[in-house]
Structures are given as structure tokens and as C-alpha cells.
DNA sequence: GTAACTACTTACCTTTTAGTAATTGGTTAC
DNA sequence: GTAACCAATTACTAAAAGGTAAGTAGTTAC
């Protein structure tokens, strides 16, 4: 029988990764967050155009991010009405993950092209 | 008209994240990699039991990781035959991403439970 | 009153993902 | 020869993800 404490540690790591994936799942959540974290507040339409995400998907993803307190929604009293989305303070804690993924993706592309 | 250089920068960031997601997509690839990176070489069956991934999925995921040079496969001349999977040197470059996700997941769990 | 702008929402469809269960193939022990 | 072990693979299915296109709703400008 194997070391039990390392099994527990392994399980914690396993769960931790799955927990993170559960919150930032899908093709778009990290892209949306990187835009909001790096470029600040965006309106719904701006975000749709900037990311290339269709309204249906964008709406769904923003809602899920809002539920997880990573994005906040503010209705502005403009004519016509506009809605501003911003990354929350809690989203800042994801910056480490986002930046690591950006760096890896950039490096990977260089590697692939170089081959 | 908006600043063109920042549009390009934004697009690079966008693509970089999607490139990374393309390589480590799905529920399991980062879990598999974290096991191999942290615990070293594992056999197919060990990996299946350690991760709780069924043979069909594990086989598919390992194959995709192998194609992307993140995992190496070694057939051992044992009786019965066994197959060892290891993370490659290139997989080490993903450690930053994996570790950031582990830390975030652990922190997030603490936050959720605390609420 | 009709066109335009914003921010969605709905209906519909296709593709992808992930899972179970059973099977294959090679080898060894009894 | 038959049971057992390992590493897959195949067939099948259910669920989720993601996309298009069109519609809704509130307001304003002409």
C-alpha cells in the first residue's frame, strides 16, 4: 500500500485544478477576463466586437463570470441604455493564471512556427 | 478609430490564450500533466486509477498530449507488457500554468467554504 | 411611424466531449 | 485450456458546448 499522505496531497492537487477549470471553463471565459483585466471596463457590444463572441454566448459567459464574482455589471443611464462590464478585485487573483497562459501560448506558437 | 497597435496586442493576447487552451483543453489534460510532472513516470493502469479516468478517455488524452510533445510513451519489456508515461521537458514549461491553477483552485475553495 | 441604436433572448441545430460496457490481443501461471 | 493481467480499442449513448439567425424591448432621431 502506498503512502496515504501523498495520496491526499495528490487528491488536493487534482481537485484544485478541477475547481479552477470548473470556474473558467470553455473557450471564452479566460479571453473575456484577459480583456477586462488588461483593458478595463467594456460595454457589451464592445466586448462582443473585441472578442468576436456572438451575443448569445457572450451573455451566457458574462452571466457565469458574474455568478462567480469575477465580473461586475453596471447599467448606465445613457440614451440608449448601455451596460458596462468590469473585472472585479477577485478577478485580479486570476491574473497569475491568465498571464502564465498568455506567456505559454506565445512561446508555444514560436516553438511550432520554428519547427 | 482606435489605436491599432493596442488592437494587435489585444489580438496576440487573445490568440495566445486560445492556443494554450487548444493544447490543454478538456477536463483531464492538466490533471494528467500535474500527476506526471509532480509524481514522475506512471503506467497506464496506475494513471487511470490515480486520476479516476476511464481507459478510453485516458488513452485519447494521452495520445493528444503525446502529439503535442508534452508526454512520452515507453513500452517496457515486462511480463505482461507495461507502458510507462512520463512528462517531457517541454511539459516543464507548463508548470507555471499548472501551479498557478492549483494555487487558485485551493484559494477559491477556501473562499467558497468561508462564505 | 419608421429606422436606428443598445443589450440582450429565443429557437434551432451541429459538433464536441465524456462516459459506460464490452471486446481485443498478447502473455503467463496453473 | 482457462483464468488472469495489462494496455488499450470499439461501439454506443447522453450531455454539454457552441454557433447562426431572428426576434424582443426600450429609447431616440428624423
UniProtKB/TrEMBL annotation, chains A, B:
Domain of life: Bacteria
Alphabetical UniProt keywords: DNA-binding, Transcription, Transcription regulation
GO molecular function: DNA binding
Keyword DNA-binding in annotation: yes
Annotated ranges, domain HTH hxlR-type: 10-113
Record's protein name: Transcriptional regulator
Amino acid at each position: 500500500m502506498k503512502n496515504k499522505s501523498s495520496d491526499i496531497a495528490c487528491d488536493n492537487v487534482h481537485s484544485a485544478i478541477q475547481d479552477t477549470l470548473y470556474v473558467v471553463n470553455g473557450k471564452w471565459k479566460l479571453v473575456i477576463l484577459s480583456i477586462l483585466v488588461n483593458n478595463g471596463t467594456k460595454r457589451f457590444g464592445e466586448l462582443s466586437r473585441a472578442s468576436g463572441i456572438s451575443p448569445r454566448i457572450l451573455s451566457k459567459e458574462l452571466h457565469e463570470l458574474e455568478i462567480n464574482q469575477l465580473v461586475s455589471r453596471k447599467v448606465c443611464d445613457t440614451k440608449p441604455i448601455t451596460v458596462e462590464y468590469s473585472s472585479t478585485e477577485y478577478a485580479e487573483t486570476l491574473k497569475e493564471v491568465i498571464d502564465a497562459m498568455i506567456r505559454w501560448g506565445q512561446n508555444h506558437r514560436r516553438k511550432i512556427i520554428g519547427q
